[in-house]
Write a structure and sequence with these properties.
This protein is mostly helical. 41% of the residues lie in helices and 7% in strands. It contains 19 helices and eight strands. The longest helix is centred in the N-terminal third of the chain and has 24 residues. The protein starts with 5 loop residues before the first helix and ends with a strand.
């Protein structure tokens, strides 16, 4: 059974070419034609290899697991069966079973598309299990560290590999564009390290971290590096988790998952609309809920297509393109976004940047919307357009990112850095200390300063060789006199 038509294969190639050609994108029609997996005993999209040396990208046999009598023992990604991998197999077949089922259901929708893109980049198709480990194939997945999308890109890395991230769109959420970027990044990492285990670890921890780990332990064997303390537990577990997901995902029947109901493979049509098109009006014209239209275009962050583009490729469920062309394609001007909220200036010293800060928006967004600069002074009672739609609550889910609170540990570090900066300016330096205090478990800087009747800023400035690098620990010796 074929998963992709010839036209669809050409589409994926076109996406790859367009991604490398400074974002000149051609309209495309479909992503997939079939919804059921080729092999009912493996997750759709994963490699299908039945014999040794059968795959041009490399064929790997799963040694040590012969007693499991698996349906699929071959992978195009090096997979091991060791204690670390067994731990995650036990997890996903035990207390994490429900997680695996949810991930697998969504895999039916996205894995075939991702695998086709990986294949066009000449990468192992079994790398779809890296996306499974990252996000469970969720476009809206977001980590505490602000990694976003099915491939969990951080903002810097996403932009580096061609994804647009601004107020209006976040292409890390687009399963196609993000997969193209992920393929480019994985190829880059594999070219750097030459081993897929290290490339995968680098995807999680960053290539710099893995390069330093290789130098520190003088080995390129991930499993040897993993024994040390340098890598975080998350990275140590990351590679075994991918391998466990791959082993289970290609042997569903062996692990009791033969009844998974895969979601229908991603299949949509494209219409071309202008930039700054009101998606509420589009949804109404197509007799859809706005939320349904947004589900097909998860990269669009707000209620309009981006203002900065001339045209935008809007994805629609099958059958809606004909309706759009019949009712709306010749009346595009009627769908232009005009229903912006506004704010009336109360004082006489406000600037565009002040208004933006008040509503937790980046200054350039408000400035662009009003044809001004950030520093432009505003008159009393002057109206300033805001990028919210009339009738929308500014606390609506669409704007949840504006009100996210940082993780507690991040807040603590920020306060700590602020204290250090103040201490450098206000604290007195004890040049020749004669008295010392040994930090006890549970001590804070404030408590140490109070116990020794010394200014907090003086304590910090005098002990910058320790305090300037990290928070204090039990056993640290601090000068207090």
């Amino acid at each position: 059974m074929k998963l992709f038509s010839k036209a669809t294969s050409l589409l994926i190639v076109a996406l790859f070419i367009s991604s490398c050609a400074s974002k000149k994108q051609d309209p495309f029609q479909k992503i997939a034609e079939k919804s059921k997996p080729v092999d009912e005993h493996r997750i759709v999209g994963s490699s299908q290899i039945k014999e040794d040396k059968a795959h041009k990208k490399g064929t790997y046999f799963l040694y040590g697991a012969e007693h499991l009598n698996l349906e699929n023992n071959y992978f195009d990604f090096p997979v091991k069966y060791n204690d670390q991998v067994k731990y995650w197999i036990n997890y996903f077949t035990g207390r994490g079973r429900d997680h695996f089922i949810r991930y697998s259901r969504r895999a039916g929708r996205y894995a075939p598309v991702m695998a086709k893109i990986l294949e066009e980049f000449n990468l192992p198709k079994d790398l779809i299990f890296l996306a499974m480990a990252e996000s469970g194939f969720r476009n809206t997945a977001k980590s505490w560290a602000k990694a976003v999308g099915p491939w969990q890109f951080m903002p810097f890395t996403g932009r580096k590999f061609g994804l647009k991230i601004d107020w209006w769109v976040d292409e890390r959420r687009d399963p196609i564009k993000a997969s193209v970027a992920a393929a480019k990044y994985l190829k880059y990492l594999h070219n750097m390290f030459g081993r897929w285990e290290l490339a995968a670890a680098g995807y999680n921890a960053g290539e710099g971290k893995i390069r330093r780990a290789i130098r520190r332990y003088k080995t390129e064997n991930f499993w040897e590096i993993r024994k040390g303390r340098y890598l975080k537990r998350e990275t140590k577990n990351y590679v075994p988790k991918i391998m466990a997901l791959a082993i289970i995902g290609k042997n569903l029947k062996s692990f009791g998952f033969e009844d998974i109901q895969f979601q229908k493979t991603l299949d949509f049509e494209i219409v071309i609309v202008p930039g700054e098109t009101d998606l509420f009006k589009v949804a109404e014209a197509l007799e859809m809920e706005f939320e349904e239209l947004h589900k097909w275009n998860p990269e669009i962050m707000r209620w309009t297509t981006p203002r900065s583009v001339i045209s935008y490729q809007l994805k629609l469920p099958l059958g809606k393109k004909a309706k759009w062309e019949q009712c709306c394609a010749n009346r595009l001007a009627e769908y232009k976004a005009v229903d912006y909220q506004f704010y009336r200036i109360r004082g006489t010293k406000s600037t565009i940047k002040d208004v933006a800060r008040k509503f937790k928006i980046k200054g350039n967004v408000v400035a662009d919307l009003n044809g001004m600069k950030n520093w432009n002074r505003l008159r009393k009672n002057q109206r300033v357009l805001l990028p919210f739609r009339i009738g929308q609550n500014k606390r609506a889910p669409m704007y949840a990112d504006l009100y996210e609170k940082p993780r507690k540990s991040v807040v603590r570090k920020r306060k700590y850095r602020k204290q250090i900066a103040l201490a450098k300016r206000k604290g007195k330096l004890i040049s020749n200390p004669t008295s010392w205090y040994t930090v006890k478990r549970g001590d804070t800087l404030w408590e140490v300063a109070r116990k020794n009747k010394i200014s907090l800023y003086t304590l910090i400035r005098t002990n910058l060789n320790i305090i300037g690098k990290r928070m204090i620990r039990a056993g640290d010796r601090l000068a207090v006199r």
